[in-house]
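Quiz preparation item.
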């Protein structure tokens, strides 16, 4: 049975394994791919979609 490790130890071992396998640049790129982001995408998406739809409708009316 394997020994119980702290999350800190696991991270340290994981980073070392990634660096050895992927190289430092590959390791960084891999880790960046897991960025969680921030904000409420769904709410923000509805806001900018509504703005764009209104703008498009105004432009269509202008051209008529």
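Solution:
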């Amino acid at each position: 049975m394997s020994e119980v490790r702290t999350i800190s130890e696991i991270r340290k071992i994981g980073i070392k394994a990634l660096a050895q396998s992927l190289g430092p640049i590959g390791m960084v790129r891999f880790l960046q791919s897991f960025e969680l982001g921030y904000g409420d995408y769904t709410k923000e998406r509805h806001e900018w979609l509504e703005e764009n739809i209104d703008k498009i409708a105004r432009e269509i009316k202008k051209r008529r």
